[in-house]
Amino acid sequence: MIQHQSTEPPDEGQRSHSPAFSVGSGKPTDRRRLVADDDSTHETLSQRSQLEAPNSSQGQSLAAHEKRREGDKQKSTWTGFSDRFVWEILAAILSAAMLIALIVVLAKFDGKPQPTWKHVSLNTVISWLSTISKACIIFSVSEAIGQLKWVWFAQKTQPLSNLRTFDSASRGFYGSAELIWTLRCRHFAIWGGLAVILALGFDPFTQNLIHYYPNTVEDASQQALLANVSSYDTAGPPTAHAAEVWIDPVLKANVYNSLFNNDHSRPWSIPQYACSSSNCTWDPIAALEARAICSSVTGDLNMSCDSKVPDNLTYAGQPNCTIMLPSNTTAWFIPYQYEYASISIAAVLPDQAVVFKNATLPPIQMIAPYDFNPSVKSPGEGKWQAMECSIEPIVRSFSATVQDNMYGEETLGVWTQGFYSWEKNWTNVPTGLYFEPPWGSDLGISPSSGFMLGSSAIMGITDFFNSLFFGQFYLQTLNSVVFKTREPSIYAPSDFIQAMSLGNITGCDVRSAEKLECAMKNVAQAMSKTFRDSAYVGANSDFSRANMTIGRALTSVSYVQVRWPWIVLPALVWVLGAGTLAGTIWKSRRAQVPKWKNDPIPLLFLYQDGSDKRGVSLTKADGANHLGMRLYEDDKNMVLAST
């Protein structure tokens, strides 16, 4: 219980009579009229001091009095603002403004590149805005809860402990939780308590609004070039008195790589390109290329075992079987013995082909067992198959990309119909095979686009195919193999036969005639690279003179992604806080309660047991600046007394 008494601290001299407040059950030793109960007390003491002071100090006392009056005037202005909840309303408005500014900033950069400001980052700006918004609304809520305790006690008699509950609620989340539990939805002050508790997640939620993801944007300062040509007429020097033409050495090297270089990165299939940013893209491109198409011709095999092995040879008298296609491509075997021709490959004239009779270049045929293995005995009848492939010049439309230095293409269209220049009586153009796809810019074709494979190139490739793609592989004994080709040969047919029978060609992990299809697709890719790289090679690997297709270089940039659902909690905190403040203003006016809020001074004046006047005037608490107080112990009682 708070008691009014006048006492002296044990370590002080005689004290003037003044109000004192003790905590304990002891009786006061001297009851005096409280300073807070008599509005004239300060004025009387001041006048008495002025009469007793020497004349030399009268001027100083008057100056101090005037200064005090000026301070009271300023405090009166401040009190007026406080009584009208001006500061709390301004804080709520500022909080809303910061929250709106936060939303505006996020909306501006949502889906945009991360800003590169000099001194601050986007996260820093959002953190500052959210911190100011949270601090302002919590200030308003704290003051509102502090005011609501006076409204709570003004409505009806309430437990004194509720005073402590309200006071704790205005200071933090623990007290707010206690307030919600105590009131149990009986008073809208729980809105404020809920706002204080939810405000714990204010900063994490606002920070979780921002996420970053990598995105690529065009970088004009970087380089994106891709080899591409519309015509190819490159060949080596003539030979055999101009009856034959050597193949372009670049094409030969690429084809050999596709057959003999077991490299899964397939460098022989990737055209020359430059992408300084490691990520590039190009608009649709149309280019002269080659493709391989194959068909099974097993049904056209003709097998005969009528002849016998001569008496003067090993296996004398055994059946000597032959397997033949209509083009005279032939394999032979002695059934279930180690001596047999396991595979036979030949390039044939188009009119001798089984399927591709209109081919531009010689079709290639292959006869082999279903699962040929040089370490086992020859198969019997009915276990052989045949394949026929044709490599044809085409025009292909594609989109090219480079991602993390990995080149890739997507086919958009293929045009196969061509015509020779003499078929249209063209005389002022190079002789060769021409292509005119009826495409538009969406497939990389301009109105003047034309594609051509020259006659010299066709002649050189034809001689190359006839020499390279011909031969047989067979066993003489279990420990002896033979690679039989035409003699003489200007290329490497025996190496090709060895690769087809015993080698591991890239991507061709099969042991049947289907291996020919895989190998010819590799050859077609190598030829396509050669066609497209021809301008680059002709310019001595100079990008600036190679007339390459220009693309777009892309650079990875961090983009901002705003996850808007996380804004719900900050907005809810503001709504609860603003609602609590509005309700507090309305209830305070309705109950005509002084706007003391969290001011502790009125508590010292409000309860005075045993005095002839209890309570405090509405203005007396503002005079506390002129009243000196000290807390000390007297007779086991804690006393807060004026000094």
TrEMBL record:
Pfam annotation, one family: DUF3176
Transmembrane segments: 85-106, 564-586
The keyword Phosphoprotein belongs to this UniProt entry's keyword annotation: no
Polar residues composition-biased segments: 43-61
Keyword hit for Transmembrane helix: yes
UniProt cross-references to InterPro entries, sorted A to Z: DUF3176
The entry's keywords: Membrane, Transmembrane, Transmembrane helix
Compositionally skewed regions (Basic and acidic residues) per UniProt: 28-42, 64-75
Top-level taxon of the source organism: Eukaryota
Region (Disordered): 1-75
Protein name from the UniProt record: Uncharacterized protein
Organism per entry: Aspergillus felis
